[in-house]
Amino acid sequence: MPTDEFIVTPWHVEGEIDYDKLIKRFGTEKISKQLLTRIEKLTGDLHFMLRRGIFFSHRDLNAVLNEYEKGNKFFLYTGRGPSGHTHIGHLVPWVFAKWLQDKFGTNMYFQLTDDEKFFSKQNLSLEETKQFAFENALDFIALGFKPENTKIIIDTENIKTLYPIAAQVAKKINFSNTKAVFGFSNDTNIGMIFYTALQSAPCFIEDRPVLIPLGVDQDPHFRLTRDVAPKIGKQKPALIHNIMIPALQGPGGKMSASDDNGTVYTTDPPEVVKKKINKYAFSGGQPDIEEHRKKGGNPDIDVSYQYLRIFFEPDDNKLKKIYDDYKSGKMLTGELKAILIEKINGFLKIHQEKREKARNQLSKFLLENS
Amino acid sequence: MPTDEFIVTPWHVEGEIDYDKLIKRFGTEKISKQLLTRIEKLTGDLHFMLRRGIFFSHRDLNAVLNEYEKGNKFFLYTGRGPSGHTHIGHLVPWVFAKWLQDKFGTNMYFQLTDDEKFFSKQNLSLEETKQFAFENALDFIALGFKPENTKIIIDTENIKTLYPIAAQVAKKINFSNTKAVFGFSNDTNIGMIFYTALQSAPCFIEDRPVLIPLGVDQDPHFRLTRDVAPKIGKQKPALIHNIMIPALQGPGGKMSASDDNGTVYTTDPPEVVKKKINKYAFSGGQPDIEEHRKKGGNPDIDVSYQYLRIFFEPDDNKLKKIYDDYKSGKMLTGELKAILIEKINGFLKIHQEKREKARNQLSKFLLENS
Question: Would you say the ipTM is above 0.85?
Answer without folding.
Answer: yes
